[in-house]
């Protein structure tokens, strides 16, 4: 007898065996997914490795760049003239320009050999804080090295040193001294400057030559040059900078008698209280509001500029110190300057009768305005500059045409 197989049993096994049902599909999909995850993992870890290596490389590059900046390796500088100075590092972080790598740091030993071991024969001048030396860094030209190791408060010297290096690294102008670099070695600090062959205005006016080498026109050029340097500090620096120690010994002259402002140890941002770096020494050049309140404004420099203008006109020191009487400031001559008829008689004998009287009256009026006791009555240095330019011949940088 034929056995009847229920339809359900007869068909069910083949149906199950051939079925492309969900379990098989699921296996295929999972394998695919695993592969993708693996690829993604490999790709992302490779990317991570590359990124980490790149970061490490960048960090290493930055470290070596900073190291070079600290040690003053400057691509624009003579490779032999600049070497690392390990002892610079403790102070280097305090000086902005050093960390930014914009100013070369000289190795002390290099400056030592360039100045013949800081020999007496290389001394150009001697100050309270140290000496100024002539130095030969190469065969072609000479520079000057100020070595600060003299007496006085070492904290103040250190502050002034940092202040000067910091400002001079930022300030670049034809009428402001160029700093070529600096050095730090134990307690000794050195600053390297361009050579100013004609020395200071003070020595030209009050030294052995007694101003005989300075004609009226040259004096006007020096006044305009100083005013240009000051205008740059007051009007073109942001924030404005006040020099605070402008005097004839800080006005230097190069071989062409271009005047440049030097000594930025006391320079400060305008409108601050200048009490952090207190000024000592000669007060004859400084405005009373600064001496009394320590108020730093551009008008302090205008006053000091007026004192220099008086020195140029009268040939007198900012403060005369006769042994018998009290020291006398050149500003005490101001009332005599207002007397036009007598003005030509009180001038420096070296320039008497050598200028157009109209020009003399104008310069005297400018000087009188600059030394006004009330700061707000003093002109801005830019106004001073523009009233002096027409008095200076074209070939000396002014606008006066001599027919
Ligand atoms: N770059 C230079 N080139 C030539 N002579 C210079 C140079 N710098 C300074 N001098 C001379 O050295 C003198 C002293 O300058 P320095 O800036 O060293 O003074 P100082 O020691 O700071 O004294 P002070 O604080 O009284 O100004 C100047 O008056 C000038 O005669």
Describe the structure.
The protein is an alpha+beta fold. It has helices spanning 7-18, 22-70, 89-92, 96-99, 108-114, 154-170, 201-206, 216-236, 288-293, 298-314, 334-337, 343-346, 357-370, 381-388, and strands at residues 123-126, 130-136, 142-148, 179-185, 188-194, 241-242, 251-253, 259-261, 268-269, 319-320, 328-329. A hairpin with a 2-residue loop joins strand 4 and strand 5 (188-194). Helix 8 (216-236) packs antiparallel against helix 10, helix 8 (216-236) runs antiparallel to helix 14 (381-388) and helix 10 (298-314) packs antiparallel against helix 13 (357-370). It is elongated. The chain starts with 6 loop residues before the first helix and ends in a 15-residue tail after the last helix. Adenosine-5'-triphosphate binds at residues 124-125, 127, 129, 132, 144, 146, 193, 195-196, 199-200, 202-203, 249-250, 252, 262-263. Adenosine-5'-triphosphate is lined by residues 124-125, 127, 129, 132, 144, 146, 193, 195-196, 199-200, 202-203, 249-250, 252, 262-263. Keywords: ATP-binding, Kinase, Membrane, Nucleotide-binding, Serine/threonine-protein kinase, Signal, Transferase, Transmembrane, Transmembrane helix. Residues 118-389 form the Protein kinase domain. It comes from Brassica napus (Rape). This is (rape) hypothetical protein. One of its GO terms (molecular function) is protein kinase activity.
Q: How many beta-strand runs?
A: 11
In what range is the share of β-strand residues? 5-15%
What are the low-pLDDT stretches, counting only 5+ consecutive residues below 50? 4-17, 65-90
Tell me the helix content.
Answer: 40-55%
Strands in their spatial order, largest beta sheet: 1-2-3-5-4
Listed once per kind, the bound small molecules are: adenosine-5'-triphosphate
Radius of gyration in whole Å, from Cα? 36 Å
Q: How would you characterize the largest beta sheet? A: 5 strands, antiparallel
Q: What integer is the average pLDDT?
A: 83
Structural class: alpha+beta
* SSE pattern: HHHHHEEEHEEHHEEEEHHEEHHHH
* Broad shape: elongated
The count of helical stretches stands at 14
């Amino acid at each position: 007898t034929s056995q009847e197989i229920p339809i359900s049993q007869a068909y069910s096994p083949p149906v199950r065996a051939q079925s492309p049902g969900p379990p098989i599909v699921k296996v295929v999909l999972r394998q695919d997914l695993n592969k993708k995850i693996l690829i993604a993992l490999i790709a992302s870890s490779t990317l991570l490795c590359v990124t980490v290596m790149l970061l490490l490389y960048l960090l290493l590059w930055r470290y070596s760049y900073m190291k070079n900046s600290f040690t003053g390796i400057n691509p624009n500088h003579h490779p032999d003239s600049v070497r690392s100075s390990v002892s610079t590092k403790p102070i280097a972080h305090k000086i902005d320009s050093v960390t930014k790598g914009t100013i070369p740091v000289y190795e002390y030993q290099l400056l030592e050999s360039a100045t013949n071991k800081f020999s007496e024969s290389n001394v150009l001048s001697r100050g309270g804080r140290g000496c100024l030396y002539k130095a030969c860094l190469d065969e072609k030209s000479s520079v000057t090295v100020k070595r600060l190791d003299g007496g006085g408060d070492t904290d103040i010297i250190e502050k002034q040193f940092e202040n000067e290096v910091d400002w001079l690294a930022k300030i670049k102008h034809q009428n402001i001294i160029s700093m070529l670099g600096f050095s730090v070695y134990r307690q000794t600090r050195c600053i390297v400057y361009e050579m100013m062959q004609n020395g200071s205005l003070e020595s030209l006016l009050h030294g052995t030559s007694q101003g005989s080498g300075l004609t009226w026109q040259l004096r006007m050029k020096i006044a305009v040059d100083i005013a240009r340097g000051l205008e740059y500090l007051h009007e073109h620096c942001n924030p404005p900078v006040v020099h605070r120690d402008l005097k004839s010994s800080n006005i230097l002259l190069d071989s062409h008698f271009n005047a440049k402002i030097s000594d930025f140890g006391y320079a400060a941002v305008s409108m601050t209280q200048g009490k952090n770096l207190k000024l000592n020494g000669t007060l004859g050049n400084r405005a009373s509001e600064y001496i009394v309140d320590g108020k730093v404004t551009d008008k302090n420099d205008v006053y000091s500029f007026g004192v220099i203008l008086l020195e140029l006109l009268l040939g007198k020191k900012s403060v005369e110190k006769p042994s018998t009487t009290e020291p006398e400031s050149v500003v005490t001559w101001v009332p005599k300057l207002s007397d036009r008829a007598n003005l030509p008689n009180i001038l420096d004998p070296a320039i008497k009768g050598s200028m157009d009287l109209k020009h003399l009256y104008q310069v005297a009026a400018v000087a009188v305005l600059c030394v006004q006791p009330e700061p707000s009555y003093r002109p801005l240095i830019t106004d001073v500059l523009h009233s002096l330019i027409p008095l200076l011949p074209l070939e000396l940088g002014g606008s006066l045409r001599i027919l």
